[in-house]
Amino acid sequence: MISGYLITILIIIAIYAMLAHSLNIITGHAGQISLGHAAFFGIGAYTSAMFYTEAGFPFWISVPLAAVVAGIVGALLGIPCLRVRDDFLAITTMGINFVVEAIFLYIPFFGGAMGIGGINLPKWFGREMTKPEYFILILIVFFLLLLLDRRMGRSWIGLAWASIREDEQAAGAMGVDVVRFKVLAFILGSAIAGLAGGFYAHFLTFIMPQNFGFGQSIVVLSMVVFGGIGTRWGPIVGAIILGVLPEVSRPIMEYRTLIYGVLLLGMMRFQPGGLLGSGSILSRTFQRLSITYGSKGESQ
Amino acid sequence: MILLEVKSLSKEFDGLRALEGVSFNAEGGEILGIIGPNGAGKTTLFNLISGIYPSSAGEINFQGKSILRMKAHQISCLGIGRTFQIVRPFQNLDVESNVLVAFGHRFYPSLWKSTGPFRRPEIVKEIATLIERAGLRPYAKQIAKNLPLGFKKRLEIARALALKPRLLLLDEPSAGLRFEESAQLMELIRQVRDQGIGVLLIEHNMQVVMDLCKRIVVLDHGSKIAEGSPEEIRSNPLVIQAYLGKEA
Asked: Is the pLDDT of residue A283 over 90?
């Protein structure tokens, strides 16, 4: 059987992949930079934790509620973000992250610096889920989210997001209700981040404000950028690589951040579109392979 | 029938009067030229009509309905398409998707309809016709930023036509184009007019303006200084003065 260590890493990576995927909706698809995505991850985690520990709701209700609450807060916080663009948006979202973290830290209701404990893995068939089962549950949910993402990408919504990403003013002049579609991206991205937060809380069994700070936002953004911003699989690949890296580099612990930094810098320099971005070495190789082996499938 | 009615329209930017009391009418199937020296307020006028900026005062009526307080996306859905002085296609999307974005204007207002797929056979066919008419068929799958300027300008027109507009605002379509490119573009504009679409044309190339327009409005320092046929405009002393300055 798989060792406990391995399954823990797998679950954490799957949760990060879901989180990176959700940020990709806001930043990759709709083109709205966010440096505070961990805030919604945290809102989801805290919502689910509070409903579970305080209200006694089961996992199966508290986690969907986490998505709903994070989505609503995402819509509300998305409104001030509508007035700003680019670097100002980056600063605003960053500010949101600090405020949300501070609320968790300083309001006793949320457990303060001590955080919230006693959150457990979900129960089914009268017993607690095992870790491998929990991993499969996350994968199933993630799979459904990817199906939704594919459907979105082929819909008018996906097209409207792309036009906003390219040129907001021109998009407006072409009939795209920029405000509505931006808010939609914020809601969807925040709700999925909240869902990931719910899974995270129930896995860690104990959460505290520091888990959802600015540093966490940067890690998630790095995953998205590293793998390929705006692509469907890029953020997942980014989450896997950047999630595995700290584990395999344990022997050279002291140089870990150095390697991390060099990797990101090299990426910016040589593959600005990310590993799976258009024109990257990997995506060109896939294209060549699919042409060479004469398949009729899509070349992406 | 009057398609667009602009009445004493003004726009002020932090104390700077960019447009002051401009009035004119535009009709369907007609190309109305808008000329004037740099900084006369021509592009500002377009930005007010298309709802990119709010107007400071005045009236804008489109098909008898006030559009003064409407947002850009509402105005474009009503049937006013536009191009930009400095071309703004969606650079990283291909030609087809560029046109599709505007075609979607009928789906965006309903969230439910927006979730529908955009690659449906009947839609693809209509888009192909629009692209064909703009002479861009061989480039349908090309990314917009890789197209030469002349094609980008045609793409902007094709995109605006996907809105099924009654009125088209063209901001300096011939600027930066070679002679042949410009001639082809003017032919496209004529075809658009012949479909009964009203065209407002900002243009610096006087030969183009005199060729295409039956009527011309002249702006200078934010005000309308003349309106009339190309012949009248050519011989109007105020216009000559605005362009060449007063004799010493």
From this structure: no
Whether the Cβ atoms of residue A20 and residue A193 lie closer than 8 Å to each other: no
Rounded CA-CA distance A161/A168 in Å is 10
Q: Which of residues 182-201 of B touch A (CB under 8 A)?
A: none
Phi and psi at A207, nearest 5°, equal -125, 150
Number of domains composing chain B: 1
- This model of the complex carries an ipTM of 0.92
> Torsion angle, CA of B182/B185/B191/B195, rounded to 10 degrees?
-130
Q: Give start and end residues of each alpha helix (H) in B82-148.
A: 95-103, 111-114, 121-133
Cα distance between residue A235 and residue B118, in whole Å: 25
What is the domain range of residue B197? 2-244
Q: β-pairing, B57-62 with B65-66?
A: antiparallel
CATH architecture for residues A4-248: Orthogonal Bundle (1.10)
Task: Among B76, B90, B123, pick the best mutation site for testing chain A contact (most A Cβ within 10 A).
Answer: B90
Instruction: State residue A263's pLDDT score.
Output: 79
Contacts of A220 (CB under 8 A, 6+ apart): A16, A19, A20, A23, A37, A38, A41
φ/ψ of residue A146, rounded to 5: -70, -35
Amino acid sitting at position B183: A
User: Which residues on A lie below 8 Å from B52 (Cβ)?
Assistant: 169, 172-173
The CB-side HSE value for A122 (13 A sphere, CA atoms) comes to 20
Contacts of A66 (CB under 8 A, 6+ apart): A43, A44, A45, A47, A48, A51, A194, A195, A197, A198, A201
Chain A to chain B Cβ contacts (< 8 Å): 98
Q: How far is B142 from chain A (nearest CA, A)?
A: 14
Backbone torsions φ then ψ of A256, nearest 5 degrees = -60, -55
Q: Is the pLDDT of residue B137 over 60?
A: yes
Least confident among A121-125, A221-225, A268-272, A283-287: A283-287
Is residue A294 scored above 60 in pLDDT?
no
Q: Which of A174, A181, A231, A300 to mutate to test the interface with B (most CBs of B within 10 A)?
A: A174
DSSP type of residue B65 = E
Domain extents for chain A?
4-248, 257-300
The per-residue pLDDT for B248 is 56
pLDDT digits (tens, 9 = 90+) for A204-238: 999 999 999 998 999 999 999 989 999 999 999 99
* Residue-level pLDDT at A78: 87
Question: In this structure, what CATH number is given to the domain that contains residue B45?
Answer: 3.40.50.300
- Token pair recorded at residue B116: 């529908």
List the single residue in B82, B93, B113 with the smallest CB-CB distance to A173. B82
pTM over 0.80, yes/no: yes
Buried b (16+ CB within 10 A) or exposed e, A247-284: eebeeeeeeeeeebeeeeeebeeebebbbbbeebeebe
Q: Which of B41, B222, B90 is nearest to A172 (CA)?
A: B90
Token look-up 């309308």 returns B224
